[in-house]
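Justification of resources, computational component.

The compute hours requested in this renewal are based largely on the per-chain cost of generating structure records like the one below. Each record pairs the submitted sequence with a full structure-token output. That output is archived, and it is also reused by downstream analysis tasks.
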Amino acid sequence: MTCTIASFSYNLATDGPAPRPAGLRFVTAGGFTTRYLSWGTSGTPVLLVPGAFETADTFYKLGPALAAGHHRVYAIDLTGTGYSAPSPPYSADHIASQVAAFLTAMRLTGPNAAILVGHSAGAADVGVAAVQAPDAVRAVVFLDGDATPLSGPGFLGNLLINPYRTTILRLALRQDALIKGVYTSMCGPACPSLDEAGVNTWRWPLEQPGFSGEIAYTATHGITSMTHAEFAALAAAPIPKLVIVGQDDPQMPRADAAATARAIGAPPPVLVPGRHLTMIASPGPVAAAINRLLPSPGSPSSLLWPRQGDLLAVTPSAPRTFSRASASASRDPDGAL
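The structure output for this chain reads:
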């Protein structure tokens, strides 16, 4: 009883509107209100889909790198995490429907179909979307993700009940050191360090309405994943597929990356410098691999496929500080919902 009273009291004392950055852009379609970022104005469209606990801001370095290669690039917040309106359930099928709705709303279908890039758990979401909405998908890229199930004990979701779930989340998200520690362990020494604004770029999305429910859903059902039938359907799909993975990724060993490539009908995986957040650690090599996925006019596609053991070079640069200014450079200041 004492713990319950303390939890309710803490939640009441810390209640209030969650902070949000200015200039957020949204599109509403298919029952989803989706926040997005964009880079570039011409070329083949690319849609970047984040993984667990990530948002469109995670691609603040990869988006411009792809745009420089003549792509129109979009990145979205998935429902349940970030600034998109919460819309349960947070299953792969449901999130794939959000991806398909966004593609349709932005007219990225048919001849204008997009390359889908899913990071980490987002790999399952783009894989299922490619199976559900083939007319909107030009190619599929799994970035640091294998789309297989990863779940904890199912009873954990039942234990994470309110008011305790809210208290635990708020206490955790107020720890700058925790956020910096997780980021550093997943990104590696090549990544820019987080200043106060950079910490908030990771913290604020997880303070939005809906994330608490998404956490409970994931604790019960696991992260989004593909079924055997969906893997088979994706492998049979007549579109290019590719797996890109950090050479030091603790969550996706090279054997796993190779097995994933075989499972989706892709060539051998491309290894790039970095750990699990390669879109931040190695945006240039990741963009180069994606650029090679589709042939340019007059080029045989066979020359563009990665080869076994490919490792794209990266020019080391001094670590910089990740701030909200760099992540939000493309936002429309008048695009608030």
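The first strand starts at residue 25 and ends at 29. The two ends are 41 Å apart (CA to CA).
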